[in-house]
Every structure is written in structure tokens, then in C-alpha cells.
Amino acid sequence: MNGDAARDLAAGFIERGDTQSWFDALYKHAGRNFDVIPWADREMNVHLRDWCEREGRPAPGERVVVVGCGLGDDAEAMAARGAVVDAFDLSPEAIAWASERFPNSPVRYQAANLFAFRGSYELVVESYTLQAMPLEMRARAIEAVANLAAPGGEVIVICRGRAETDPPGELPWPLAPSDIQRFAAHGLATIAFEDFDDPYEPGKRRFRYHGRRA
Ligand SMILES: C[S@@+](CC[C@H](N)C(=O)[O-])C[C@H]1O[C@@H](n2cnc3c(N)ncnc32)[C@H](O)[C@@H]1O
């Protein structure tokens, strides 16, 4: 299944007013075939990797949570760099698959919904999950991501980006600068907001946001 087929599957659910169940359905449908999952790169997100290398993060022992962890590659990479990692995903199937892939992992995986998950972390990692959630959930989702940062804690977001005046587009729905600015309303000061053409996939506009709670 390519990205279009996954989008068709998602569209069927979304038309019925169910914007969240398609993830688990897609992971089940995949039957452990990575090729069916458009975002299953079997490696850490490259923009997260570049950030970690540039910033020397995470620090050993840093308490990290990975939001919408999917098949676990970001979480495993953070743990391999010495962080103490919790990782969660709405899809129980994704969590089962990630746990099978990494049976001896120190990462604590759990099936959980961003809107119900509670915790307080030094670093909150989000790659490509906000953009996969429908626009009507976006403000609440950004608040929920922000709320996972402890006092002095930080958030790193990697996502598709668009100009404020661009139409919202299709799944994955790119974030606008005003979406990123919402983190400030939830107590996060911007350390860096990078808006760039993806060097690995030219033509795709990306945002990388790094914020810190006062
Ligand atoms: C596009 S995938 C990206 C997965 C992973 N971050 C990656 O880059 O490989 C989005 C992930 O977010 C999860 N997700 C969607 N809505 C969620 C929610 N409300 N709470 C937790 N996870 C959610 C999906 O199940 C899916 O695994």
C-alpha cells in the first residue's frame, strides 16, 4: 500500500466521522509488512536525527516521551543515545508491533491517546503526528503535547509546513506558523523555529519547532 492507498483507507473512516481509528486499522491491515505503512522508514526521523546531532541531545538520563511513536524508531534512537524513554501511540497494533521489533528495549511502550496521556518530561518528541490529526483537533492536540513538558522541559516538533494563506491541503495536513505559535499560549518560549525545504525530499516544506517551558 502506498501513501495514496493509506489516504483512501483513512478517508473511508473520516467520511464516517471517525478520524482516529484508521491508524490501528492500517497497522492491522499491514500484517507486519512495513511497505504498507507510508511513514515506516525503519530508522529515526532524519530531521530529528539531524537536530539531535546538532544539539547533542538527548543528554544521558534525560526523561523523554515520544508522542505517536508508531513503530518505535524515534523512541529506540533516543534510548540508544542514553535517554530514559516513554513512548505511546493510539494504536495498540502499532505498540504490539514496536514491542515485537524491540523485545529487549528499555523503552516503556504503551497504547494511549494523546488526549488522555499524562506525564511530565524533560523532552517531548513529536514527529509527523500533529499533521496526521484532523484540523478540528489541532489546537487541543498542540495543548496536549505542550502539557507533557515539565517546568524547564522542552518540546521538539517535526512536521510538514505551509504558509498561513495556503489552503490546509490534504492528509498529512501541514501546520501553519499560527499553529506553532499556539505553543506559546501553553507556556512554551520558542528556542528555534526552522522553516525549510526538505534536503532529503526536495519540494516538501518542513517545520522544526523547539520550545521550552519557563
Ligand atoms: C503519521 S504516523 C507517525 C508515526 C511516527 N511518529 C513516525 O514518524 O514514524 C502518526 C502516528 O500517530 C498516532 N496517533 C494518531 N492520533 C493519536 C492520538 N490521539 N494519540 C496518540 N497517538 C496518535 C498514529 O497511530 C500513528 O502511529
Describe this protein with a few key phrases.
7 strands, 214 residues, globular, Rossmann fold, binds S-adenosylmethionine, alpha/beta, 7-stranded mixed sheet, 32% helix
Describe the structure.
- By secondary structure, the chain is of the alpha/beta class.
- It has a single domain (42-213), classed as Rossmann fold (3-Layer(aba) Sandwich).
- 32% of the residues lie in helices and 25% in strands.
- The protein is built from 7 helices and 7 strands, in the order αααβαβαββαβαββ.
- The chain has a 7-stranded mixed beta sheet, with helices on both faces.
- Strand 4 (121-127), helix 6 and strand 5 (149-160) form a beta-alpha-beta unit.
- Helix 6 (138-147) packs across helix 7.
- The protein starts with a helix and ends with a strand.
- The structure holds S-adenosylmethionine (SAM).
- S-adenosylmethionine is lined by residues 20, 23, 39, 45, 68-70, 89-91, 94, 113-115, 127-129, 132-133.
Ordered list of secondary-structure elements with their pairings:
Blueprint: H1 3-15, H2 22-30, H3 46-55, E1 63-67, H4 73-80, E2 84-89, H5 92-101, E3 108-111, E4 121-127, H6 138-147, E5 149-160, H7 177-185, E6 188-197, E7 205-213
Parallel strand pairs: 1-2, 1-4, 2-3, 4-5
Antiparallel strand pairs: 5-7, 6-7
Helix pairs in contact: 6-7
The structure holds S-adenosylmethionine.
S-adenosylmethionine (SAM) is lined by residues 20, 23, 39, 45, 68-70, 89-91, 94, 113-115, 127-129, 132-133.
